[in-house]
Amino acid sequence: MNAPMSPELVLHLALVASGMWSIVCRLNLLDPSADSSTVAWQHIALGAALAGSLVVPREYATHTVLVGLLIFQAAGARRWRNGAPDGVRKRPPAASTAAVPAALRGPHA
Amino acid sequence: MTTPHPPLDVVSVLVAVAAMALGPELAPYVGAYSVIALGAVVGALIAVWRRPPSSRLQVASFASVLVVVSVCTTVPAADLLTHYLSIDAARGGQWLLFPVALSLAAVGHDWPRVARWLATTAGRALRLRIGDPPK
Asked: Cα dihedral sign for A15, B73, A60, A42?
């Protein structure tokens, strides 16, 4: 429920439209029969919050998006229970140079 | 003496908010249609997830059509529901707008199947009513 067009409202609309478009594109690629329902519901909740931010009074728009973000994070908490999910985890630190044989270190080592 | 409770459903709250921003004449329409549009958008997201993957243009037009059709059909559908469920529309029918808009959009690409099922069910009910046994 926002008052007549202002630059802030135009920016808000553009950002919400961009966010919704990215959510739609991702949902389009998620397999509904596979084990992706958590990810899909995360995105649907975030989309609802983004759309809701256009409906609620302007002073609560930020809170609406933040609630959506919190739901997104909370819904994905199970995937993060044992650290980062597979495929996005950082590689373990490389072995120290002392353990690398001198022949492999090169002439400037 | 206790003051009567104002209606606390989300449509009434949005109508009150709209009345502050836009004045009392437009508020009932803007408040109700904000809720309907929100339900339609969420339903369209669910429908996009449920359908097989397709090109971005197809998805964009599919979601847009769903939102528009859902926004246009929600009020009559909610009126029908309030009539058949015997809900007092003046007191409690408004809360139906969000779930009806969401459901209408979320059915998505399954609408032809749902329409066939509705037609079959209606045909059976009609035959039962006129005394012709179902085949």
From this structure: negative
Q: CA A72 to CA A47: how far, in whole Å? A: 10
Residue B115 neighbours by CB distance under 10 Å: 11
**In chain A, which residues have pLDDT < 50?**
1-2
**Chain B residues within an 8 Å CB radius of A29:** 53
pLDDT computed for residue A67 by the predictor? 95
Nearest to A46 by CA among A26, A30, A66: A66
Instruction: Centre a 10 Å sphere on the Cβ of residue A8 and count the other Cβ atoms it contains.
Output: 11
Q: Which two tokens mark A61?
A: 């728009």
- pLDDT number for residue A32: 84
- CA dihedral sign, ordered B61, B62, B63, B69: positive
The residue assigned the tokens 């359908």 is B51
The tokens describing B58, both together, are 């197809």
Report yes or no for ipTM above 0.85: no
- Residue B60 host element (H or E): helix B56-84
Residue of B17, B46, B60 lying closest to A44 (CB–CB): B46
**At B7, is the secondary structure helix, strand, or coil?**
coil
Size of interface A-B (CB pairs under 8 A): 62
Per-position DSSP letters for B92-121, written without gaps between them: HGGGGHHHHHHHHHHHGGGHHHHHHHHHHH
Separation in Å, CA of B46 to nearest CA in chain A: 7
Are the Cβ atoms of A43 and B45 closer than 8 angstroms? yes
Residue B74 has pLDDT above 80, yes or no: yes
Asked if B37 lies within 8 A of A27 by C-beta distance, the reply is no
